[in-house]
Amino acid sequence: MKNNFPGMFNELYNGNFQIESKNQSNFPDAWLQIGGNHQTSWNFINAPLEKPVLEIKNTTALRAGIVQTYEASLDVRKDEDWQILMFFKSGMPELQAYLRIYPIRSNGDVSKPWEYSFTPGLKQEQFKQVISVCSEIKFLRLETGVLGLGDLYIYKLIAYSLTPNRMKRRVKKAKKEIQAINHIQTIGEIIKPIHLAMPIPLKIPVTVQANVNADIRDLTPTRDRVQIFGSSQAPFATSVSGRAQVEISGHEFHESIEDVTANQTMSATTTRDVSALLRFSFVVYNFGAVSARVQAELSPNGVHWTAAGEQQEVGPEELVIVSPVSFLRYTRISYKSDDLTTLRIWVQAQS
């Protein structure tokens, strides 16, 4: 279905959220919820005489958004260059929105997604992203949402191909040609002295003499003191003799559990910030009857990812430990299977 947009067509089905889903109550057709947790809310506002908008309120999870259904993926078989337009509004300053694009090949294989991030303002803004696809890619599946805490309002997504006719730009011709200099009338016109409107300041050395009185003495803890503040604006406690009082606490244990369903599409768990943890490990248990493949991934910003270590196979009813050796701020587990199987993924850590 194509919706008119000034000068172009929208190739995304229901990219403006005009059609409500028959299978999901109060949600746009051809879109699904992704990421978040039980505290995240998706509110679809489709009131009469108002433009539809999808509001995502994310309170705890790092990533929460919407993703196209597989059947509604963008068909890119005819053109290589595409323009993606997104209309966002943020509910708070410095909020980060993201766009994730899953390339789908002709045999159905899905490559790792392309990821982009944006910073929408408190008023509705338009964001553009130009992408190029190779001939092996047949479809693109789009996902968008919010990274981290905050409220994001999604008004519309538009995708159209950048065909040669649409990429043409008008070039204005110069009104007059630049005339060459034929001759100079007199040399005298060049060597005339230039009269300055303002006087030229002169650098004149100046000697200054002054008397400075300073009290230089030894510092003592009874008469002199220095207060050091941390980020919480609370000073360090000290004893009567001026020595710092330090409170030593033991290690804390952290654990989270996530159940996922693995299939032929490479997917990933919820992103976690591990910057405050001393050490952590993933544990994956396979409830199904077919094997799955898992791999740890690391990221410095929650948007761009790299594999950490080798891909591991998890057999039926098998428990596998995945412990990244390298450190970056964000981590997650990517998983895939040749058939449907259920995985339970623990994250256990000490701080």
Give the CA-CA distance, first to last residue.
Answer: 52 Å
Principal-axes geometry comes out as extended
**Number of β-strand runs:** 22
- Portion in helices: under 10%
Helices and strands, in N-to-C order?
Answer: EEEEEEEEEEEEEHEEEEEEEEE
CATH superfamily of the largest domain: Galactose-binding domain-like
Overall description:
This protein has 351 residues and is mostly beta strands. It folds into two domains: 3-164, Jelly Rolls (Sandwich); 253-350, Jelly Rolls (Sandwich), CATH 2.60.120. 1% of the residues lie in helices and 42% in strands. The protein has one helix and 22 strands. It has one helix spanning 164-167; strands at 3-5, 8-10, 31-35, 41-45, 53-58, 63-68, 74-75, 81-90, 96-105, 114-118, 125-132, 137-147, 150-161, 253-262, 267-268, 272-273, 279-286, 292-299, 306-314, 319-322, 330-337, 341-350. The strands form five sheets. Strands 3, 6, 7, 9, 10 and 12 form a six-stranded antiparallel sheet that branches. It has a five-stranded antiparallel sheet with strand order 4-5-13-8-11, with no helix packed on it. Strands 15, 16, 18, 19 and 21 form a five-stranded antiparallel sheet that branches. The protein is extended and about 85 Å long.
Entry keywords:
351 residues; mainly beta; Jelly Rolls; 2 domains; six-stranded antiparallel sheet; 1 helix; 22 strands; extended
